[in-house]
Specification:
Elements: E1 2-5, H1 12-22, E2 26-28, E3 32-33, E4 48-49, H2 52-60, E5 64-70, E6 73-78, H3 79-87, E7 91-95, H4 98-105, E8 113-118, H5 122-131, H6 137-151, E9 159-162, H7 166-182
Parallel strand pairs: 1-7, 1-8, 2-7, 3-4, 8-9
Antiparallel strand pairs: 3-6, 5-6
């Protein structure tokens, strides 16, 4: 099971999708969220978009391996969906933040390879957040402020990779995965 985490906007979702496209043994774990879908996001593919009430019901039932509130929205990884991926003999790819990775680490039955992706700099991260044109100014400000807190957790991961170039970062991560699978 591969965990990719990063500060918001550092490229983990882009890299996750590239891994799944290049290696048919991986399936991305589709999280539940209460946030509104962004343009081009598809329910059941990018996220399972649910109401806060629905999310809280699932939470009470113990339906998540991990969950957290990020920028005012609930996010969670369904035990059911992960277990289904495993039953079908696929590797699971988690695109989650450091809080979620920490919770996943508490489940000893999950064999995790954890990689933290860093942007080249805080300034570059802010440029990327603005360029992706998915968040308002206030949201971008919150995400940039969270950066300093997020990077403090990089040392909790097996590997840290800087995303100075998507292709280079992707190739470094593929190399780490191959080395891990060969051990």
């Amino acid at each position: 099971m591969l965990v990719l985490s990063s500060p918001s906007g550092a490229g983990k979702t882009t890299i996750s999708k590239k891994i799944q496209q290049s290696d048919s043994t991986f399936r991305i774990s589709v999280s539940h969220t209460t946030r509104k879908a962004r343009p081009n996001e598809v329910d059941g593919v990018d996220y399972h978009f649910v109401s806060e009430e629905e999310f809280k019901i699932l939470l009470k039932k113990g339906a998540f391996y991990e969950h957290s509130i990020i920028f005012g929205n609930y996010y969670g990884t369904s035990k059911n969906s992960v277990d289904e991926i495993i039953k079908k003999n696929f590797n699971v790819l988690f695109d989650i933040d450091w809080k979620g990775a920490k919770q996943l680490s508490g489940f000893k039955k999950l064999d995790l390879l954890k990689i933290f992706i860093l942007p080249p700099s805080k300034e570059e991260l802010e440029k990327r957040l603005v360029a992706r044109n998915q968040d308002g100014k206030e949201s971008i400000k919150k995400r940039v402020l969270a950066y300093s807190q997020d990077i403090k957790h990089a040392n909790e991961y097996d590997h840290v990779v800087t995303n100075d170039n998507v292709e280079n970062c992707f190739n470094k991560i593929l190399k780490i995965i191959k080395e891990h699978l060969n051990n």
